[in-house]
Amino acid sequence: MGVMKTTDGAVDERAIIAAAEKALGEIALIRKEVGKVIFGQETVVEQTLLAVLSGGHTLLVGVPGLAKTKLVSTLGTVLGLNSSRIQFTPDLMPSDILGSEVMDQDENGRRSFRFVPGPIFTQLLMADEINRASPRTQSALLQAMQEYHVTVAGRRNDLPQPFHVLATQNPLEQEGTYPLPEAQLDRFLMQVDVGYPELAAERQILLETTGVYENEARGVIDAAQLQGIQHLIRQMPVSEKVVDAILALVRSARPGNGNAATDKNVAWGPGPRAGQSLMLCARARALYDGRLAPSIDDIMALAEPVLQHRMALTFAARAEGMSVRDVITGLVKQARG
């Protein structure tokens, strides 16, 4: 889908509205299909889908057994993307992810190198328990997420389009984990916290998943349609008021910007990428909700998943038992006035 412009170069609003209405229908179908397989967890499903619709990567944080893997495979099916999964372990090497050069010999005895692509060459990659791998292996994946290509033996190999990583991470208190460095966490558009299901959802899980037959999701769109929606989201208008709200919120989360609570509790705050992420995800949330323009409510609803992995508390705040989420909740309350 190209930029929708009229002959005089102005953005064609009618074309955008027509494309948005088509996208609204597709998103409603996507939500319905995912809901057949993933019970409850509406916020988790919404935030993960918003990240993919915005063209970004997601970090899913939660204890094992909360259907994170099932969510990723379901999204692959519903969005028509080919997908693969890597289980991260301490002995995993970068070449196990990226691929490697192997030597071939033809019938004349001539030898040549051939690149064998690794599991990263897919459209939807599940990186399971990313914090179990060594920093060297983590950075190989995170670099590819940023650059959308892999360099092996000096040769560049482009990744498929679209390319999304949905990484899962166990809470860091568990032993044998390597926390992701701050700069690498910033590569994730959102951090989605996966909690335990509500009682009604857990009852449904028990009843629906322990019989002979389980519901299966079906494909709703394909990769080209997904890229069309991603392109549309970047064209959606954002009012001056919403832009100001994004800037005010992100800047209030940085020490030294006149916010007394932040100065006291925050060691370092979110960079400009946080604002870019809020801008994209707010447009996606509007579309997900059936609207054609984002509101300040979208910004406030997305503050936690977009900001929480991009800031850190001071030692004193941590000692008092505060969490980053507490700080963000306070900033959202102030912003709402």
What features would you describe in this structure?
There is one protein chain. The chain has 2 domains: about 1-235, Rossmann fold, CATH 3.40.50.300; about 235-335, Orthogonal Bundle (Helicase, Ruva Protein, domain 3). About 45% of the residues lie in helices and about 15% in strands. It contains 14 helices and 11 strands. It has helices at about 15-35, 40-55, 70-80, 95-100, 135-145, 180-185, 200-210, 225-235, 240-250, 260-265, 270-290, 295-305, 315-320, 325-335; strands spanning about 60, 85, 100-105, 110-115, 125-130, 150, 155-160, 165-170, 190-195, 265-270, 310-315. The protein is globular. The model is unreliable at about 5-10 (pLDDT under 50).
